[in-house]
Amino acid sequence: MHSKQSELGGLGSNLGSKGNPGSELEQSGSFLVGGISTLPLVLHPTLDTTCPPTAPFNHRIVSAKPNHIRNFYTINWQEILGGGRFGQVHKCVENSSGLTLAAKVIKARNQKEKDVVKNEIQVMNNLDHANLIQLYAAYESRNDIILVLEYMDGGELFDRIIDENYTLMELDAVVFIRQIFESINHLSSIVLLQISARKHSLYKQREKLRVNFGTPEFLAPEIVNCDFVSFNTDMWSLGIITYMLLSGLCPFLGDDDSETLNNILGCQWNFEEQEFVDTSEEAKDFISRLLVVNKSWRMGASEALRHPWLSDSALHHQNSRIKKKNLLEAAPPLPHP
């Protein structure tokens, strides 16, 4: 049921890094600054609690303009940063300022499809947060809408997981997951504020929302069953992401989509793989509180941020020392001068 993730590209394009992980810190001797050593050795294993870099522009309120984007931006159509069923993302440069950005080209051939994209624009207009990608501009043509976004130069997170030359420490996973949960917590607060400002019927309408799309291996059981979704539906997906960051394995991935969906409904998973030998008990408890079939029993975003695995600095120091010891034991002996 577990699989090494060469198939991770589906979600990887959504997880570009906005900052360096916590344990890629300044290193001495022949080691690189902010890079990867030839030995899996971290000399300063402390948690990086600094915020990721902010966007190179102030938060904007954007609407789709009926102009040709080529009049204002130079798009590198050969360089594809990411893509999916609905379109592709390309690197671009604003002609007037020289600012490097990303152009997300979304296919929208009818008014219904365009309304969906414009709703996405309205959502992004409310997302002024350092952990969330920022919207710069939008342009509408006959067959598509192009969103001009903050450019992420950190690469795809899951590419690092499957890279045998990259050592992802547990503290790195803590940094990434905490940033994601801070973002989800912010999104939840925005939605609740909007709901409270409207009629009570809108709250009931939200509670009855169903979703029938997504990357199969990340889908929650209620989506597979076409049941109602809620804020806690995202918690399941974040449990999957955490599991994968710590192991490079997907707990429910099958040989095809049908088997994957059946595995999700069966909810049979464990920490028996070799990749979890050095994983802390707190990390395992964190995942166990997210991968719960009944969404009402799952840990929420604010509760997750209070969980010791994300919040206990003493635990972070303890885990980093254990990891450092294990890595030192695994490292080959240095040659004598």
The count of helical stretches stands at 12
Specify the structural class. alpha+beta
How many strands, which pairing sense, and closed or not: the largest β-sheet? 5 strands, antiparallel
| Oligomeric state, counting identical vs distinct chains | single chain
CATH superfamily of the largest domain: Transferase(Phosphotransferase) domain 1
| End-to-end CA span | 47 Å
Binding site for ATP: 104
Protein name: Protein kinase domain-containing protein
Region (Disordered): 1-25
Biased composition (Low complexity): 14-23
Summary tags:
337 residues, alpha+beta, Phosphorylase Kinase, domain 1, 2 domains, 12 helices, 5 strands, globular, disordered N terminus, Prot_kinase_dom, ATP-binding
